[in-house]
């Protein structure tokens, strides 16, 4: 049975969901709002993990793991953080089930097994981590503490969408402690740069780096830095955040250290994270009506080879050449699959690998091999080329590099063409409705105006772009003076 993808222009939301399901990336689960990440999708996430993990370790960080459960009293310790996540918390109240005395086939919560203190299933780990850090940090010699964890978190979302917003998701969260404010701010900015580097150079997705407004910053942070990406439908997606936490969590959990002058002081903190939401960004940035498109650096399989032959003797001839090509490409750290299954026809395989976004597809036919040629199809451009068999290694290497650059440049051009400057509220609303994208507009700096714009248009300030030039003007909504433009968009 052929798999059908809804046209992107027809229904963008259904197009996205079709690709996730039909390309075997993920599936809905028996738990409302939770997903099953299938092997194809998880393989891409593993590539993301591997790349990011190396970048973290190259910047001096180490991995650890902290508990899934957080005692409610610890969670409440930092008030802003607790208030910010309270509505999304899953809470454990009991630790045992028992057989229902009225129905032996059912289980009920044992009322005698109530926990002395309720446990929060982590929506984020600052509370449990900073309670732990209190026992680890005594003097400036213990600092900086640079720790990351790969984990799952639970946020009880009401409206969910595969990868983009689920009740449980996978992520990494870095939590660092520093002796000075300056060190902590430098760490916050460094990790923002790491995220931007990964998203642009591995995912081939251009981003805008900026700082969040007070309304949009992480609960419990002094400042939140972010990277914002633009999807093909003109909506923004927050691709990563890095938070300068000041001394808020150190004060909440009484984490002090003796500085070089011999005086006690509270440590300075950061936290930063990206999640499986990046899978959604990858899908929506590059895919088309034929299915998924994966940047070569993140493709679990970069090259697939499909033989065309008659009989066992023909297969043996083609397979000998295919295995030789595979060894040569694997020697160059290129991942290759040779699909010699006889349960599916070549045409079915072509459609399947196009749907799953394999960057390059090599077709090996008996007649072509007799002529010393093969055919290679590129997923991003949907073009085919017949090349000399002797040139296959150089061709594959070059085209994988070209495809990575092409996907980035294509996304960058789209973002640039969908970024607008407007100076009136009428133009702002018209642009949002007719040509959605990033909008650079003046804002008076007040939370009240920001909230009114959000209420009336469903657009939010995605960030105040870093290194944006000072440009005096008037707020599009209130008419009050503005020092510079901020980045608005409707968002996921």
In a nutshell, what does this entry contain?
The protein is α+β, with helices and mostly antiparallel strands and 492 residues long. Helices cover 35% and strands 29% of the residues. The strands form 7 sheets. The protein has an 11-stranded mixed beta sheet with strand order 3-9-10-16-13-12-11-24-27-23-22. Strands 18-17-19-20-21 form a 5-stranded mixed beta sheet, sandwiched between helices. The protein has a 3-stranded antiparallel beta sheet with strand order 4-8-5.
Structure commentary:
This protein is of the alpha+beta class. The radius of gyration is 26 Å and the shape is globular. It has an eleven-stranded mixed sheet with strand order 3-9-10-16-13-12-11-24-27-23-22. Strands 18-17-19-20-21 form a five-stranded mixed sheet, sandwiched between helices. The longest helix has 26 residues, at 392-417. 40% of the residues are buried. The model has no long low-confidence stretch (mean pLDDT 97). The chain contains 14 helices and 27 strands. It starts with 11 loop residues before the first helix and ends with a strand.
């Amino acid at each position: 049975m052929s798999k059908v993808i809804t046209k992107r222009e027809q229904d963008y939301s259904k197009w996205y969901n079709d690709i996730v399901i039909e390309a075997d990336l993920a599936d809905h689960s028996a738990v409302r709002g939770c997903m099953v990440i299938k092997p194809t999708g998880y393989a891409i996430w593993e590539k993301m993990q591997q790349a990011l993990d190396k970048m973290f370790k190259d910047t001096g960080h180490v991995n650890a793991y902290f508990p899934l459960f957080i005692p409610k009293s610890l969670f409440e310790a930092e008030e802003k953080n607790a208030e910010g996540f309270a509505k999304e918390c899953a809470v454990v109240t009991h630790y045992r089930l028992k057989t229902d005395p009225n129905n032996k086939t059912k289980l009920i919560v044992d009322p005698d097994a109530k926990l002395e203190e309720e446990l929060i299933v982590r929506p984020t780990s600052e509370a449990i981590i900073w309670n732990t850090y209190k026992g680890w940090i005594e003097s400036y010699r213990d600092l900086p503490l640079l720790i990351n964890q790969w984990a799952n978190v639970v946020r009880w979302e009401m409206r969910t969408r595969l990868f983009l917003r689920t009740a449980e998701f996978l992520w990494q969260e870095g939590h660092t402690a520093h002796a000075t404010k300056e060190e902590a701010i430098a760490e916050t900015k460094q990790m923002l740069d790491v995220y931007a580097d990964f998203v642009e150079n591995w995912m081939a997705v251009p981003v805008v780096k900026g700082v969040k407004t007070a309304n949009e910053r992480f609960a419990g942070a002094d400042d939140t830095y972010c990277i914002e990406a633009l999807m093909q439908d003109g909506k923004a997606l927050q691709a990563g955040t890095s938070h300068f936490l000041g001394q808020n969590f150190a004060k909440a959990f009484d984490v002090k250290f003796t500085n070089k002058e011999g005086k006690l002081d509270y440590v300075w903190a950061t936290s930063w994270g990206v999640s499986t939401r990046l899978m959604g960004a990858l899908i929506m940035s590059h895919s088309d009506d034929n299915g998924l498109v994966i940047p070569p650096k993140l493709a679990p399989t970069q090259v697939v080879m499909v033989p065309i032959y008659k009989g066992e003797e023909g297969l043996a001839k083609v397979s000998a050449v295919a295995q030789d090509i595979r060894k040569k490409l694997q020697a160059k750290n290129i991942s290759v699959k040779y699909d010699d299954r006889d349960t599916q026809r070549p045409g079915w395989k072509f459609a399947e690998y196009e749907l799953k976004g394999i960057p390059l597809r090599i077709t090996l036919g008996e007649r072509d091999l007799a002529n010393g040629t093969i055919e290679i199809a590129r997923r991003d451009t949907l073009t085919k080329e017949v090349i000399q068999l002797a040139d296959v290694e150089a061709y594959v290497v070059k085209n994988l590099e070209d495809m990575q650059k092409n996907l980035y440049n294509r996304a960058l051009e789209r973002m640039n063409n969908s970024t607008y400057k407007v100076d009136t509220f009428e133009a702002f609303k018209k642009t949002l409705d007719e040509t959605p994208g990033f909008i650079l507009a003046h804002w008076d700096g007040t939370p009240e105006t920001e909230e009114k714009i959000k209420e009336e248009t469903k657009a939010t300030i995605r960030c105040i772009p870093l290194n944006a030039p000072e440009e005096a003007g008037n707020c599009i909504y209130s008419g009050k003076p503005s020092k510079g433009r901020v980045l608005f968009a409707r968002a996921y």
